[in-house]
Amino acid sequence: MEKTTRLKNSGDICMDDISLHILDIAENGINAGAENIFIEIIESTKDDLLNIKIKDDGKGMTEETIKKITDPFVTTRTTRKVGLGIPLIKLAAEMTGGGLGITSKEGEGTEVNIKFKLSHIDRQPLGNMIDTVLAIFANESKINLKYFHKKDNREFEFESDELKEISKNLGISNGILIPFMKKYLINNYNNFKSKKEYDSRSDYKNEKNSLEVGK
Questions:
Q1: Mean pLDDT computed over 17-21
Q2: Which of 12, 63, 69, 77 is 20 to 30 A from 32 (CA-CA)?
Q3: Helix/strand number for the chain, H first, E second
Q4: Which strand (E) or helix (H) includes residue 26?
């Protein structure tokens, strides 16, 4: 039987996949006043590595806070007494032989780098990155979210500000922006995962047309 591990945060919600950890870290950046969030995921079968970077331009942290941030009883949040987000993803990475590193500078932002052994039996699944991207954007539509995902020789990238500008030029109202974005992401991200070729520029208009037909 395959061995699995269930990690929980302080709200007793199971953090069963990596995408939930990424969402938690991105929300930390937003809470710290970030205007830009950058998420990078690199999967390398050759090197047997899964590398994840989450970077923001929020208020940053002091050296003292960086040293304490992996302690499950330290949090910069005021919404809960115990902060387990960073300690949980650190534990999840270390269970695969990987690790977690944080660099931050006050007034400039924070960068979190996480490394997993890709093939390790205890590595959590990546999870639903489409839902993660949509959750970040839906809750904070003023944030510019950049997402880059490379899997061996295939690449997928997305930027919310670019999509907002193109949707505006296409005459897409704010009311259908999230469904438009979701449909675009589902189609193109799935093509990326299934090795199909796609043209992100031309597909924007296709997604708009399909949404209008489905009204």
A1: 94
A2: 12
A3: 7, 6
A4: helix 18-31
